[in-house]
Amino acid sequence: MPKTYSDTKIKVPRFNEESGFYTTPERSKIMGKIRGKNTKPELAFRKALWASGYRYRIDSRKLIGRPDILLNRYKTVIFIDGEFWHGHNWEERKPKIKSNREFWIAKIERNQQRDAEVNQELSRLGYKVFRFWENQIKKDLDACLHKVIAHLELQSHKS
């Protein structure tokens, strides 16, 4: 899929010893346990959406960005983003990164850039994009769910 984005792509340095990064086996084990899908907030949101009578697909490979939840009938996608990986309160948190700053700042800023690119492309394809922080889901699942369901009900009345 050709990309015609105005921003230049942020280059993230490789996380390996040749680039000056050294990881211990213990650090590698910890990082290996970080889950990219089926997180607790994701499962809670999916369970609540299912209980509300909406059926969906998860981690759809057919769409750019692999949305966490796809409601194809309603042309709606939902992403539930982790605070660290997607840079929640980034300007406040950025100075607090102490180790491997060169890597982590580029990594998180590239993730944010990619999120914007994905949102733009999905919108161009006619999808409504919802993005929630994991903490939003944990603290106020009902409000997040209500936001999505209100949109879905509006869509079902149009068709």
Characterize the structure shown.
- It is globular, with a radius of gyration of 18 Å.
- By secondary structure, the protein is an alpha+beta fold.
- The mean pLDDT is 86.
- The relative contact order is 0.17.
- The longest helix has 25 residues, at 134-158.
- Helices cover 48% and strands 11% of the residues.
- A hairpin with a 4-residue loop joins strand 2 and strand 3 (76-81).
- The protein has one domain (35-158): VSR Endonuclease (Endonuclease, Chain A), CATH 3.40.960.
- It is built from six helices and four strands; from the N terminus they run ααβββαααβα.
- Strands 1-2-3-4 form a four-stranded mixed β-sheet, with helices on both faces.
- Helix 2 (40-51) runs parallel beside helix 6 (134-158).
